[in-house]
Amino acid sequence: MKIGIIGLGNICEKAYLPVITAKEEVELVFCTRNKEKLDSLSKKYRINESVSSVDDLINMNIDAAFVHTATESHVEIIEKLLNNNIHVYVDKPISYNYEESLRICKLAKDVNKILMVGFNRRFAPMYSDLKNYGTPSVIKLEKNRVNSPKSPEVFVLDDFIHVIDTLRFLMDDDIENIIVNGLKKNELIYNLVVTMTNKNTTCIAMMNRDGGANEEELEYTSCGKKVIVRNLMNSKILINNMEENKTFKDWDSILYRRGFESIINEFINAARLGIQPNPTIEDAIKTHKICDEILNEIDNI
């Protein structure tokens, strides 16, 4: 299978290339307008074919593509790929505009091609294993950053979207109610606290971008059980007042721990077999819709 990698920036270089380039069953074509980056990474990973435009990449007869470009360019690139019968994996979000995301989702279904969004936390073992502890009654996920307030769109769709999607994944059922609170100053968002509920579960999604540490902590509570996951790396499991600590094996890679290995495998396997991945684009677009609702509520903060 022939796969194009579009955009060779920091996230692609750190999180995706180490995994994808190790796969002997795929043939890769790198694509970026940055000639220096294109030449250096092609040499580093011994990539024989590289191009500087998406049009040239399409002419290489690729079967699938990973899109790691700036969010503003996603829609144009994805649309071109799908219309040329190419399966697409894209970093979140699809677009800063929900209607555009919805339109691209419909296009993927119309042309019967995969469009998968990079919600890697669903595949992080410490998070995915939480489903083994029963239906949750309360989940709290806090993801913080140091001295980094952002505009509402960037705050919600570039980062907070991970928190929302992870909670949706763990809740199982659709969200019925959403309450949004936060701090906005000079058109920048400093923190958000979003409460989401359904008939079984209350979720609290928190992000403070004006805090003292880059950190992530998830608390998952079900009947007689509580699990606390710190920075996706270790878990404290409390069952009927008994405590157990769970960590990874020393040789488990950081990219495996953070879910990148598994989500990359999911997309490549789905593209090779011509089946829909999990999560489907219909599932991923629900996360985009909730984020759009949150952005509408931010206007009232």
Structure, described:
- The protein is an alpha/beta fold and 301 residues long.
- It has 2 domains: 2-118, NAD(P)-binding Rossmann-like Domain (Rossmann fold, 3-Layer(aba) Sandwich), CATH 3.40.50.720; 121-260 and 288-298, Dihydrodipicolinate Reductase, domain 2, CATH 3.30.360.10.
- Helix content is 36%, strand content 28%.
- The chain has helices spanning 10-20, 35-44, 54-58, 74-83, 98-110, 125-128, 152-171, 254-257, 260-273, 281-298; strands spanning 2-6, 27-31, 49-51, 64-67, 87-90, 115-117, 138-144, 177-185, 188-197, 202-208, 215-222, 225-230, 234-239, 242-247.
- An 8-stranded mixed beta sheet has the order 8-9-10-7-11-12-13-14, covered by helices on one side.
- The radius of gyration is 20 Å and the shape is globular.
- The mean pLDDT is 97.
